[in-house]
Amino acid sequence: MTELKLPSIDYSALSPILIMLGTALLGVLVEALVPRRWRHVVQLTLALLAVLAALTMVVLNADERMITAGQALAVDGPTLFLQGAILVLAAMALLLIGDRSVERGGAFVAQAAVTAESADDRRQAEGRNGLTEVYPLTTFAIGGMLIFVAANDLLTMFIALEVFSLPLYLLCALARRRRLLSQEAAMKYFLLGAYSSAFFLFGVALIYGFTSGIPGRTAGVDFATINAAVSESPASQVLLFAGMALLAIGLLFKAAAAPFHVWTPDVYQGAPTPVTGFMAACTKVAAFGALLRVFHVAFADAAWDFTPVLGAVAVLTMLVGAVLAVTQTDIKRLLAYSSIANAGYLLVGVLAPSRDGLSGTMFYLVAYGFSVLAAFAVVTLVRDADGEATHLSRWAGLGRRSPFFAGLFTFILLAFAGIPLTSGFTSKFAIFGPALDGGQAWLVIAGVLTSMVLAFPYLRVVVMMWLSEPGESTPTVTVPGGLTAAALMIGVLATLVLGVAPAPLLDLATGAAEFVR
Amino acid sequence: MSNFPFLSVLTVAPLVGALVVAFLPRSRPDLAKQVAFAWSLLVLVLSVVMWVSFNAGGDRFQFRESYSWIPNWGVSFTFAADGIALVMLMLIAVLVPLVILASWHDAESSKRSVPVYFALLLVLECTMIGVFAAADVFLFYVFFEVMLVPMYFLIGSYGGHQRQYAAVKFFLYSLVGGLFMLAAVIGLWVVGGKTFDWQALSQVDISTGTERWLFLGFFLAFAIKAPFFPFHTWLPDAGGAAPAGAAALLVGVLDKVGTFGILRYCLPLFPEASKWFAPWALALGVIGIVYAALLAVGQNDLKRLVSYTSIAHFGFIGVGIFAFTTQAGTGAVLYMLNHGLATGLLFLVVGMLISRRGSSLISDFGGAGKLVPLLAGVLFFAGLASLALPGTAPFISEFLVLIGTFTVNKPVAVIATLGIILAAAYVLWMVQRTTQGTLNPALTEVDGMRRDLNLREKVVVAPLIALIVLLGFFPKPVTDVINPAVQATMDDIGRTDPAPSVGGTVQEAAK
Questions:
Q1: Which part of the chain is the NADH:quinone oxidoreductase/Mrp antiporter transmembrane domain (chain A) (predicted)?
Q2: A420 and B142 in contact by Cβ < 8 A?
Q3: Of A160, A302, B66, B169, which sees the most CB atoms within 10 A?
């Protein structure tokens, strides 16, 4: 009988994850112990401090390159870069989540169990303070994402996927207004998410089968073993391809790539807007972080096999996102389809088989995250008596009513459209350049063509805001409280700075763009 | 003096001015106008100093400056000007103050912020100067795209009838072209060894197939911008809807970015492909000359008419560029300048007429010369310049294009000559219907039509008239600057002029 050896764990390298999960647990205790009127302040402070502490640890660990906790977690350049990105974006999202001045009592429902549309529901919507459970839920999600991008075997990855998905399902259901829409969104997200998790798990099982039977190695789902199995395994290639496909379905679902995107518009529309922003920015980073690691580390040697399929998915995603964005009349749905199209561009980056491709994709994730959070921050501000006015026709003439915020939103839209001097342009370049360099000209052409289509819906919003006359029902823009204003300004400034002087972040991304295997 | 960083200062100065103007209080529109005008005069003075310190016989590219920007991608702020760019920069510097002066009251009728209008004009000047001064392909692309934004708002916010439609159409057409160019720019970056420096890229050998695709990407963007037939449909809408001053800049300068881009980027960077595509480009040019002229004859809207005449003129410029002779090339560049002056004048004068009458339809005029004789006279002069009457500057450029083309491609030159006849038709008929003939009784009831040119308007038109006449008789200072640059471009694509068969007379004409 062999002696059981405990794996060595480098606690300092894992500290960002531990901090976030620990704070989440602490947050649950706060819910139980702290008086109601203090909870909001305590929870928000706690969550923000935790994010800051975790970010500090990421920065301190910047030079770590290791695989720790057995083969379960890899702490390397991409992990640290993406963890940093998730934490920064999550801090912005937390500012939006914590804001209680734009909407009295915050964007969240006061009592989730109240029947939607009932008299109680109307009373809670009038200004009772929202749930504070959202903070531990968010912190759990952030912690899960941090594991997700660091996971070095498929089982850990699966657990991380569940850890960050379950809180998100709940968060989606907690909108203060339009509760039915919100609950429907959560239900859809949960059901489809559960399916996709099942696909993922089935894929893990097949891959496990594929790795067995290599002389001198035990079967396993850590990436080194899978990588070895791709070239050496005596098992049938069908196992590999089927397993890869099922894994990809699970990951592409989270990344909102076509044809696994159908949940996105409904969920983005129904979820409370700060949560939508959180999903659009952080979930995207986490999902693509995992995609990058799975396809660049575990299946690197099968690139010939997966590139055409993922390429087709990328083209389809760009097309679906761009074309359907044109027909949207709701700003949140429009941004959802735009986020789908952006997932397509990111896939182009994933398929660029070089260090530049990897760093370009990471740069894109950060740049897009900042812009999209700022965009949703503006969406929270445009409101009337019934909450946010998300129908596009309501935005007519907004530029006349509130030139400042309409100007900021125009700038963000121009960034989405890829106009130079915004991060939207530099990040497109960061992805298309390496893709063309890697011989994926067809993907770049598809990307450019869909960008043209996608420019139209953005431009339509600009026209709405500036060139239309304000109507009777044009809502006013609420002057934001400090938290939302801070998040908005950070997002807009980052969009500008990354567009005008992208070199520092590019350097950082290039320096980090190497996986440990 | 040539060590002074002219180009970067010229690019940044209008932007600073725009910021100053934009933050002036909205309640003091006159102050904003004065500051904007003074600022544009400052840019003009600086440009004149630059023109004087340009050494026509010296290096091809002068005033070169380079600052690092995004080292990861080999992008730098590199500015440099050859003779062609210098002429265009001068045109911008001359036109912008005149446009500001001519647009003095344009923004007031729109209910929108007056300072912002003038700030947008200055932002536009910044991007226009940048696009001609850039010697880094990435930097050029940045200005090329950003240029759309101020123009979009000028048309969309301050324009006339159907401004929203026109603004969106303008933006989308240009953006589509720009994105094709972006793909080609990235392609060029990849085959050129990860650099964007123009001079380094012009030394790169590219395989024939790749070169043709890259050429096509750039050419498409420029053909939409210029615009050449069949990519022209946005221009009449944009030109028709834009306020007259912005329209003068749109047609006078912005569209020249297209032809300038072909000369600076398509020809030297992709010489083989340029030769391969030349017959097609010539065909587009010739079709544009005839087709747009015919459409111009049929227009009943003054600004749309002028827009169509411009498309015909861009056909001439395109023919001149792709004939690949020094005379035709010089003629084309000279045409870019002269067209900016003549059509700029025509747009401004037409704008003065329209603002008086409150309508841009030709059928609403008739016999206006009896009420506003001076204005009608200037319109007549601008029309004559636009149809290239001998003695006005456009004649020389049109003539150079035609003889330069005739030496290598007789059919094209002959068909293009038809354009001159058609030009006479659309200009003279337009002048006749608006200012000549019996007085339209409705005109006498419009207050504005009783006021002839005031001092401000005289100051606007006088310099343009003087320049058109001056360059019509004495183009040497300009051709001296243009010639070496065109010669160098012809060398880049490896074409030499055919030996003149009748000893040197053609060369004489070029001088």
A1: 151-452
A2: yes
A3: A160
